[in-house]
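Dear Dr. L.,

I hope this message finds you well. Following up on our conversation about the binding site, I have prepared a predicted three-dimensional model of the protein together with zinc ion. For your records, I am including the exact sequence and ligand specification that went into the calculation, followed by the structure tokens. Please feel free to forward this to your student if that is useful.
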Amino acid sequence: MRKLKLLFLLLIVAALIMGGYSLLRDLSAPVLTLAPATGTFSAKRPLTITVEDSGCGVKSLQVTAVQGGHAIELLNRDYPGGTAHVTETLALAGKGLQEGPLELQLRAVDHARIRLGSGNPAEQTASLAIDNQPPQISVLTTHHNLNQGGAGVAVYTLSEEPSETGVKVGDRLFPAYRQASGAYVCFFALPWNLPPAAFVPKVQAVDRAGNQRTVGLYYHVNARSFPTDKINVTPQFLESKIVPDFQQFFPETDSPLELFLKVNRDLRKENLAKVREIGQQSAATVLWAGTFLRQPNAAVPGFFAQPRTYMHNGLIIDHQTHLGIDLASTAHAPVPAANAGTVAFAADLGIYGQCVILDHGLGLQTLYGHLSQIDVKVGDTVTRGQIIGRTGTSGLAGGDHLHFDVLVSGQQVNPIEWWDPSWIKNNVTDKLMLAGVTIN
Ligand SMILES: [Zn+2]
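The resulting structure of the complex is given below.
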């Protein structure tokens, strides 16, 4: 019994020595991280401080702001032993801080027993500024005349560098691009499916401290109606086109009609999302000049924003909207680039078949679908009129033709506007001159 007691005491002593040793052995100071570490912050985008101490843990954290010779304590907090990770968000309201520069002094200490028990200190100072003022927006373009399904351009300046800016339409932000003059250019759209009454475009800018401002634009809207079309999905089309070309996308589907519906609905949706994504990666300068070329000698079997009703054996099976223009001439006709740009995409894209997307800068892009042959690769620079491939029937096509889209940050707009030199002059190039951008 006595031996057991002795053993127990020995164990306690050993544990105390080891514990004390680890308290003394912890020689590394806590690690302080401040976000943002430079620049501006605000009540909207507050300061966050993290402290890490993998030894004995964080014991305390003090944060002091020095502004105009006055020291203001922002935080003074103690933590229990073993606190390995601390995250503090500094609330700035009611602390008596002014807009403008300040110096931030941070000090954290751990629970180590060294330095007569005062622990390992970590100290950091940072020069920052409080900014609670949103950017000033000066819109330089005085009128914006948009056709339903069409595009527009806004040019404006900002009083400070933004973290995000563009024209907001509904819940979509069309991004703006800063030009060498310092002005911002934004191509935006009145989407074909947005009722004109719901179209209220606003310029929006968020600064680096998170302060946001929006201002309205003067605009005029021309409502448009789009001609409808009926497409007969024949048993022969299902067997000779849909099954061989699309079974691989939905291998579990065994009815050709069900397969067609999956392609026309699900694959279409997926492909549109991909086009939208590609539209977010665009050059920050204008790469094009002149009007956009139209596929030569081509009839138009399909119009922009055309509501299409799909029939099978006399029954309505689906509704979709055609978001480009179909252009048919001879089979395997050469396809010219509508304008100068770079190749953003050149591969198979589901319903579009073999597909090329050209980037013309500032979010403006053109898409060429159902090709039988692609003659360019991603990253290539192309000139206006350069042959980029040949028409065909790849993807969801009933016959040899080119499917042509014009896109503004991934939103399909009416290509007819871009074939019209006076529309381009009045709505695009005259406005770009306000941003110091000249297009010949
Ligand atoms: Zn088409």
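In brief: The chain has six helices and 31 strands.

With kind regards,
A. P.
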